[in-house]
Amino acid sequence: MKWMEMPKPELKKLFDGTLAAYEGRKAKGLKLNMSRGVPGREQLALSNDMLTILGEGDYLSPGGTDCRNYGGLEGIPEMKAIFADILDIRPDEVIVGGNSSLAMMFDNVAVNMSHGVRDGEPWMRQGRVKFLCPAPGYDRHFTICEYFHIEMIPVQMTGDGPDMDMVEALVSSDPMVKGMWCVPVFSNPEGCVYSDGTVLRMAALKPAADDFRLYWDNAYTIHNFSGPRPAIPNILRECEKAGNPNMPLIFASFSKVSMAGAGVAAMASSLSNCEYIRKRFFVQTIGPDKLNQLRHVRFFKNFEGVMAHMAKMADIVRPKFELVQNILQKELGGLGLAEWNVPAGGYFVSFNAPRGCAKRIVSLCKEAGVILTGAGATFPYGRDPWDRNIRIAPTYPSLDELREAMEIFCLSVRLAALETLM
Ligand code: PLP
Fold first, then answer.
1. Which residue of 72, 146, 247, 387 is surrounded by the most CB atoms within 10 Å?
2. What is the number of H-type helices and E-type strands within the chain?
3. CATH 3.40.640.10 for the 61-301 domain, yes or no
4. Best mutation site among 36, 44, 101 for ligand 1, i.e. most ligand atoms within 8 A of its Cβ?
5. CATH fold of 3-44+307-421
6. How much is the pTM?
7. Ligand 1 neighbour 273 (Cβ under 6 A)
């Protein structure tokens, strides 16, 4: 029976039972931080051989670059080739950076603010800069905007990606809309894969600002754990066809492929954008950590090596996502209280609690020892208009810890819902 339809005395009985069960769990004193999408130990261990793969005397890349030395501003060719295959573009469209793609995004926004896009008028001198922010979305994208006082305009996510009617209307009418965050494959947190139609409409945008940029964050492009890797149209090629060759800036990294603290990141764009980026890199650094790139090249060898590794990764991650789905279904299915997505890849399960309950649920979980991502974090300015979205990140805990944490989570959802229903 749906809880909304239940008579008050029955709800009271349910509440008393749920509260007792919750207090029992709380007394067990679990301590678990599930606030971020962090790879678990088993996932990291898959790449442990990388720690010793460069034996003494192994510092020359296959092409002969001395990776100990300065230089190689845009990465060693073999690392560029691997990224090019992952992103289905040409190696000369790739610039390899340090370990973090988020740092490359931050850097790109910072430079556009202070120096403009391709040496144009700095964004910050043109007025109040605005970014479109699909929501729920990745909190760190929003933090970058907040840091630079960029106004964030939330765009509703649909099953096909961001609401494109809204995107087209805003981008084409307002020259201060300078950017948009996109996580096209297994979006954070919804696990949404943009439909072909969405990608094509995105490529064909007619921005009012000629310095508008699409921040195409391909963080999870090879992170399918159930079913094949999704194939979406190639944004770089589609933008070329639509007459927007310089609009997309693509980002990717090995943070959730090899080691989150010691991966390799890259960005990709048109040749002409790469030219500008290279000029700036020259000012910024005398070269990236090429030994880490060499480690990756030796360990993965090529695209096929990366994909074989990701298949092993999927086998580790899949049972955790299945466990989350099973517990949610068992404890909350059919009650008419909540909805959640069933992603085929990525790092998160996006959970929509009864309206007005997300903050309460996160706080009940915390009291019982389970730290979740803050309620609201998936929306610009931390403001979830319905206070209902919670990001569940199942990868870090062990299966046993995850089971306990999810049981506490479901008890907290039930308790918060009963509090509002009574
Ligand atoms: N982009 C998205 C969508 C993410 O979810 C994350 C990490 O959670 C990142 C980027 C961070 O990437 P990196 O570790 O390469 O900085």
1. 247
2. 13, 13
3. yes
4. 101
5. Aspartate Aminotransferase, domain 1 (3.90.1150)
6. 0.96
7. no
